[in-house]
Amino acid sequence: MRRSSTGRNKPSSNSRTLRTRAGRAEGPAFLETLENRTLLSADLTVSDLSIRESSAAAGAEIHTQFTYTNIGDAFEGAWNIELRLSADDVWGNADDIVLGVEREDEDLASGQSSQERESVIVPATTPAGQYRLGVFIDSSGEIAENSESNNIAFSSGTIAITGGGVGGGGGGGGGGLDLTVGDVAGVIDTENEIEVSYTYTNLGGSFNGFFDQEFRLSLNQVWGDADDIVLGVEREIEDLLAGQSSAESESWRVPGGVAAGDYFLGVFIDSTDVVAETDEQNNIAWSAQTIAVGGSGGGGGGGGGGGEVDLTLEQVIADPTPRPVGEDVHIAWTIVNAGGFFNGAFDQQVRLSLDNVWGNGDDIVLGVEREDEDFAPGQRSFEDESFIIPSGTPDGVYYVGVFIDASGEITESDETNNIVMSAEPVVTVGSGGSGGGGGGGGGSHERAYSIFGSGRHIEDDDVSPRRDDSTAFNRLRVDGRIREREFEIHNFGDDDLHIENVEVRGRHKRDFVIAVAPSQTLAPGESTVVILRFDPIRGGVRKARLAIETSRDTDDAYEFKVKGRGFVPANAPDATVEGRRDREIRDGDLRAGGGDGTRFRSLELGEAHERTFTLRNDGVQTLILATPLIRLAGSGASAFSILSMPAMSLAPGASTSFTIRFAPESTGTFKSNVEILSNDPDEASYTFRIVGRAE
Questions:
Q1: CA dihedral 86, 92, 96, 97 (to 10 degrees)
Q2: What pLDDT digit, counting tens, does each position of 564-602 carry?
Q3: Which of 176, 191, 381, 513 is the most exposed place for a label (fewest CB within 10 A)?
Q4: Is the distance from CB of 636 to CB of 671 less than 8 angstroms?
Q5: CA atoms of 455 and 37, how far apart (whole Å)
């Protein structure tokens, strides 16, 4: 399901005008305000439902639109939105066709609306007929609302579905699902990071929704016993037609303290059992081969994975400067993992309290922060956030409390140590004031400028991308699809701010592009935007950093991490290269060794040696090579030559071969990269290294 949001209908206070892309209407942009930080009694409702198409075939993509509104008090948090087709405007009976579930994470002020657009697949088994669009806001009941009876609405218009399947139920994500997983393999690098590849397949009816995937190491291929090492959990949001497969890859770091040994890799699809399946016994698969984990030294006590997680908190501190309502207060705390290795997401709720007691009538909820983090045993993470003091907060001196895993998503060995309060009252509300010096956003006061995504302040050196501040781009196909995010730069200093350089840095910087550069000069109080485009060139998690250098940066750039995830369409070509003994040579393999033929034998001057490699199409579409088919690059490329080229196109399942000759004209070690150019969406330049030596 692909989505976009438009027309955020926010209160008009504190608005500013931003420079925007050509063709996009200019208008007010908003920073965090008083209203979208209060968390009291919300009341969400949904309206204005429509489908762009008047008719569509089962299995086709349709485009929906709807608006949700908070008619209660301001709210911050996450919830699910479920979309269905219905023949009778009754939610939950036999004719419903489930289109998908979308996770929403939004701040909504009182009266605020958000217009949403969703692209969804009509399940291939949908019976022909006339349907209305139904939307259920907060379908999983996570929000306590003034009214729970206004969360479902249906469109006034209908869509005609043609060519659907026959037989009861109409499928589309209800019954008949069966997810399975296979082809698990992995490699480990010198930094103890494992890249896991695997394929999940839907053997049942059409599916649109989410599920969790858990990854483990095991000495004996038995899931859940004492030798398991938990690598992490990844949530997947996916459209899967009946019979459709998706090839995936994830990277995980081996937890500290893991004993050296040869481990199998295990993948558990739908590990939290959110999908009702016809067969629940085929959700776990193991790699056929082991990987050698070198170990990271002694340190017993859980070894980083087998034991349960135990998150706790310490050292809550806050800026003591007196603040009136409506202004930022800076609060910091430290998360400590006192249990086994953890990878996942959880909520942190922050409150003010007059009496140092969590949960009674004097509490003032400042907000909820979503954390997505890897925690090794014993690891600490220092958190620093800015919150708006809500309207109506009485004057006084308050303790600060933080509740880790406030929504209870993590199973912990100790659930009683998740709340901590400051040792003394540290936040003064009502007396004093902002203390001069131009507020505007908290953080980066020495620089006197700040950066915001989706109206939320992004701290300098922020290393935790998340959706609510636009630093997490989420999942995107690698076949030319793009996603863009706007980041606002605001000058709250007393003189002009000169933006000298904006660039993307980091390992995957080629996956992120500056689509629109900001203005070069900002007068005091002015803002501009930089638009960052995510255009993944490979599957898997892609991480980079956006760096902004200005005339006020005396030490280093204002820099923060961004993250997205590319995935390969199931109906794409897929290039695979094999060397000696039919051993696969992975794209990006620069090691040249391991018996796969990439390391040529040592030669005397005047000798030559040849190696033949196989190129295979493991995809479901024709693999087409681009001119010059194969090229050699690198300082030692002149010692190698292509003796025979592969075929220019390969049908699914077909293979071809090419031969490389090593004929050095001088002594020494020669290295060259082999690049195979094709229409493989995530391996368009399939690259591996070859090495030869002459004596």
A1: 110
A2: 888 777 778 889 999 988 889 988 888 887 678 999 988
A3: 191
A4: yes
A5: 11
Nearest to 479 by CA among 618, 682, 241: 682
Separation of alpha carbons 580 and 607, rounded Å: 21
- pTM of the entire structure? 0.36
Residue 557: both structure tokens together: 């750039």
> Taking a C-beta distance cutoff of 8 angstroms, is the pair 311, 418 a contact?
yes
C-alpha distances (whole Å) from 214 to each of 223, 265, 270, 343, 620 are 11, 11, 8, 10, 27
Per-residue CA distances from 149 to 69, 139, 356, 445 (Å)? 14, 12, 36, 46
Residue 406 exposure: Cα atoms within 13 Å on the Cβ side: 20
Query: From residue 692, how far is each of 131, 330, 488, 602 by CA, in Å?
Result: 65, 58, 51, 6
Q: Do 265 and 239 meet the contact criterion of CB atoms below 8 Å apart?
A: no
Query: What does the alpha-carbon distance between residue 565 and residue 237 come to, in Å, rounded to a whole number?
Result: 11
Asked if residues 82 and 135 have their Cβ atoms less than 8 Å apart, the reply is yes
Sign for the pseudo-dihedral over CA of 377, 466, 76, 92: negative
**pLDDT digit string, tens, across residues 365-410:** 888 887 777 777 778 787 778 788 887 889 899 999 999 988 887 8
Contact between residue 632 and residue 626 where contact means Cβ atoms under 8 Å apart: no
Cis peptide before 628 (omega within 30 of 0): yes
- Name 224's Cβ contacts closer than 8 Å, sequence gap at least 6: none
Q: What is the number of residues in the chain?
A: 695
Residue 314 DSSP label: E
CA distance 96 to 156: 16
